[in-house]
Task: inverse folding
């Protein structure tokens, strides 16, 4: 492509036509690849084979790749479950970030859908703290936002540096995750420290960098 750019002013009509043909060919090939699930893409991710058929959706930006797997009915994911935590299977999606880190999107149409989150050690602060405003750093699949809503805090702001997660919660999972239409939930695409440096309000800070 660089050679085409440098040689564009070559007086040869044949070369100009060839340059134009090559440019259009690369343009069409790039467009087709971006729209096709079987185009040029990683086949081996972090040491394991990962065919395109293994996930439902794949999103890229300049600093991450997010793969979303098919919906499944499976036991809730806990970071540290209480002995009394429910084990009944729930509807959820697993998202994989850069082939290694993972986050889960849970169904949230009623409080019963996410009631099991009361039994995870990561939500201990909400059992102890007074009711107020909350801040979640790293939205991921929306799990920590759902926890804030479950415990009845006044308002929650979710700050996420990766726009893919915010876009998925606002569009593809708007109904399933049940968050972005709520008046007590605000999602912000920003770097958390920069965002906080511009705010003066007091909140219950809750940082979860692993989603």
Result:
């Amino acid at each position: 492509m660089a050679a085409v750019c440098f040689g564009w002013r070559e007086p040869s009509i044949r070369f100009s036509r060839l340059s134009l043909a090559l440019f259009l060919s690369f343009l069409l090939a790039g467009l087709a690849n971006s729209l096709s699930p079987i185009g040029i893409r990683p086949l081996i991710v972090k040491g394991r084979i990962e065919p395109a058929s293994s996930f439902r959706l794949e999103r890229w930006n300049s600093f991450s790749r997010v793969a979303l797997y098919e919906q499944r009915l499976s036991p809730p994911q806990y970071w540290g479950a209480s002995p009394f935590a429910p084990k009944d299977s729930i509807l959820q999606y697993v998202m994989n970030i850069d082939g290694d880190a993972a986050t889960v999107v849970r169904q949230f149409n009623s409080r019963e859908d996410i009631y099991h989150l009361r039994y995870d050690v990561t939500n201990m602060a909400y059992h102890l703290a007074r009711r107020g405003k909350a801040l979640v750093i790293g939205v991921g699949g929306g799990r920590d936002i759902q926890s804030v809503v479950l415990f009845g805090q006044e308002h929650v702001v979710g700050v996420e540096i990766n726009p893919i997660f915010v876009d998925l919660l606002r569009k593809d999972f708007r109904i399933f995750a049940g968050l972005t239409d709520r008046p007590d939930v605000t999602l912000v695409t920003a770097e958390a420290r920069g965002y906080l440096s511009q705010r003066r309000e007091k909140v219950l800070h809750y940082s979860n960098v692993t989603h």
Q: What stands out?
A: The chain is about 30% helix and 25% strand. The chain has a mean pLDDT of 86. The longest helix spans residues 13-35.
